[in-house]
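tool_call: predict_structure(chain=1)
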Amino acid sequence: MEEHYIRKAEWLKIIAHPVRLCIIQGLIEKKSCNVTEMQNCLELPQSTLSMHLQKLRVAGIIEGSRKGLEVIYQIKDPQVAELIKVLFPQIQFMEVVE
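tool_result:
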């Protein structure tokens, strides 16, 4: 099996979780977000949210930048944004309206 198929399959496995899909969709809509905002929105314990963010970071899907004491996350991989726009077409509509 070719390496790029294996990499893409692993990438899809990381994305294929409801919480991570929600995180990605929210980051596409808001452009960036900190952990506190995500935690309030998702109503998850901080440790659970951190685990999901770590998986997305390690996969290169999101990135975080420190701003004072908080970390602001945004989408790093434009391919993931394109995939999520296909799965959730309302995101595309909202971006066109803005």
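agent: The beta strands are 33-34, 62-67, 70-75. Proceeding to next step.
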